[in-house]
User: What shape does this take?
Amino acid sequence: MGNSVCPLNYKWLVKTFMLPNAVTHVLSSEILFLNADMNETLPFPLSFLSLEEDWSANPVPYLLGIVLDEYRKSAKTMLQDARKQYPNRPYRMTTEFGEVVMLQSELFDEVRNNPNLSFFGTVAQERIGEIPGFEPVAAIGHDGDLVKIIARKQLTKALSQVSTPLSEEAADAVLINLGEPTEWREIAITPVLLDLTARMSSRVFLGEELAKDEEWLKITKTYTVDVTKGIIQLSRYPVNLRPYIGWLFPECRRVREYYTRGRNVIEPVMRKREEMTRAALAAGKPAPVFNDALGWMVQESKELGKEYDVVTFQLILSVVAINTTTDLLQSVLIDLIQHPDTMQAVRDEMVHVLKQDGWKKSALYNMKLLDSVIKETQRIRPIFMAMRRSVEADTVLSDGTVVKKGSRIHIDTHRMVDPHVYESPEEWKGNRFLEMRSQPGKENLAQLVTTNVDHFGFGHGLHACPGRFFAANELKISLCHLLIKYDWELAPETDTNVMRVGFSQRANPTTKVLFRKRTAELDIDSI
Ligand code: HEM
Assistant: This one.
């Protein structure tokens, strides 16, 4: 081979050590001085290939893309470029998950109900759950059925009963976090909304007592935030190294600490409940019913005939529910601040509906402009730019593409911003989906909780988010308290740019807002 480098050696390195992000990290792009704009100056695309191409035949762009950490920084641009290069066909891309087969949105309908494709299976592939403290993440990957059943069945069934308790928690949370200032005050908004969501979710997941327990609130918030940070850190490293390097990162240490602290809070509550049940039965009375996720867990695990660890289960719920809801809540609030006329129209709608319906089941359904606003924010900025599925058995797609067991496919979300699907797709139009409701046959399609191939902010098909009905209610109730009670503006020169890492995107945690108490048209706390 003389001086030339055998491409097979590259291939061997990549395949054996899942090299991409090891190299990436060591030669991190900051050190390499290169940035995302580099992509525009190169005569070839970085890091993606058609299904037929063998990258070892032309390794330079492929490896360069990997070394430059291009995907982590500019997945959005890369998806756009790849779409032009491989219109309507699958292609391959290198990511922190190794190589994935990328499908265009149009194929989502074809794969959405395929039992060989799993959402939670992708979590196991990433091997982060093997690090001590990340047991809930592992349990998602290996054992996520309980949380899905509870979200789909019990949580959705309980919706009509939880509006009032959720509103009570929201009232407490806004008072604790914002107070009642009559002058404008500046505040970083993410921690406020995280606390609000944690309190509201905890009320339904664990009952009233723990929803007010400061130690539990600290645990649920810190755990979810640090799990996310830990995943971002670890995803820079080769998959096979991840289980062994968790101790390097402070967020992983905190994850471990808070997992243990969670146990210290929840186990005594479970013991107390068991004693109450024993005492009731001994006295010949019916066993008490605990109508929260702790109680549902006991009931459903009996039906499934499986033992589950209660702390792990609760922290799974925290991980799937709290960050996601906080993130969307923040994005909606920021969009409304940037569109004050729509904010006022939403507020008017809330006041009108609440005066008419109180917290009756119909109330949240009747907030149709609000529903449209949330869906519009999610259309433009979903949490995932590509939905993910692990392949649990060899699968042949309609175009003949074979995806092998153990590999991974991702589905590009581009139809959500495709001009052929939505007029002026880059423009945020709060009433877009409200208008869509009046079009024949589209009334259901336009609702926040409906998923389809043109809008899959909550995913689509077999693995569409089962918590979306609850999340939608929680978001609407939070926004009622935030908008009816306060005026909002952006703090001068604050940064509202979305944070992107790979295919994930999140509201900016540094965003600051101004707020002050307003004279409310109705006393929402006394409904
Ligand atoms: C605004 C808040 C939320 C957003 C944006 C969100 C988004 C998502 C997305 C995009 C998926 C993947 C779907 C797919 O790939 O097809 C998902 C799955 C899931 N979500 Fe949510 N979610 C939210 C809140 C919740 C809540 C509150 C819960 C539970 C209480 C929950 C439980 C789950 C579960 C269990 C899955 C896995 C479903 C499966 O694999 O079958 N989510 N979510």
Remarks:
- DSSP finds 22 helices and 13 strands in the chain.
- Residues 119-120, 147-148, 151, 155, 317, 320-321, 324-325, 328, 383-384, 387, 457-460, 463-467, 470-471 surround protoporphyrin IX containing FE (CB under 6 Å).
- The radius of gyration is 24 Å.
